[in-house]
Amino acid sequence: AAGISLRTQEMYAVVFAARYVDLLWNFSSLYNYVLKLLFIGASAAIVYFMRFGAPQKATYNAEEDTFPVQYLLAPCAVLGVLINQDHTSPFEMIWAFSIYLEAVAILPQLFLLQKQGEVENLTSHYVFALGSYRALYLLNWIYRYFTEDDYQQRIVWISGIVQTALYCDFFYHYYQSKKSGLNQSVKLPV
After folding, report:
1. How does this protein lie in the membrane (predicted)?
2. For the whole model, what pTM was predicted?
3. Domain boundaries, the chain
4. DSSP assignment of the chain
5. Which of 23, 37, 58, 95 is 20 to 30 A from 16, comparing alpha carbons?
């Protein structure tokens, strides 16, 4: 767990629990149901092992993982209530909250890495993969916009753009360190 932000992992657990709470009443397919359970379960397991797992807990550095997540949770909750797709449905408000929170959930991780200054290879690849996942989603949305009639998800688009933008500085430093060799650790300005 060295170099990984428990606060980011906890926020991802909240994101998936909020986004997929509809599995309690909305069954669309076995695949969808199982996938939602896996997202929630994997996120909860990561949090559990980082907090209580014998080897993981010992490597987690709580003194450096100090980002004040309440400054992310509260605004995302307010945005979820005020700006969502259907102002009459509590589930839509919770879904919008999860979209907004996912956009900023990486901030504690980036803050932790910035404090450390140098990022181990495994951690840097993990953060790069998280950012790449979101950047690939942007390409998916562009494709769907031009190939599907009436495809509009402004909340998702704006949140995705914000999330990808948050990764840009890390992407730049990741690229700079990896272009000279894959075994180079990522050095961030402190």
Report:
1. Multi-pass membrane protein
2. 0.90
3. 6-187
4. -TT--HHHHHHHHHHHHHHTGGGGT----HHHHHHHHHHHHHHHHHHHHHHH-HHHHHH--TTT----THHHHHHHHHHHHHS-S-TT-HHHHHHHHHHHHHHHTTHHHHHHHHHH-EE-HHHHHHHHHHHHHHHHHHHHHHHHHHHSTT---HHHHHHHHHHHHHHHHHHHHHHHHHTT-TTPPEE---
5. 58
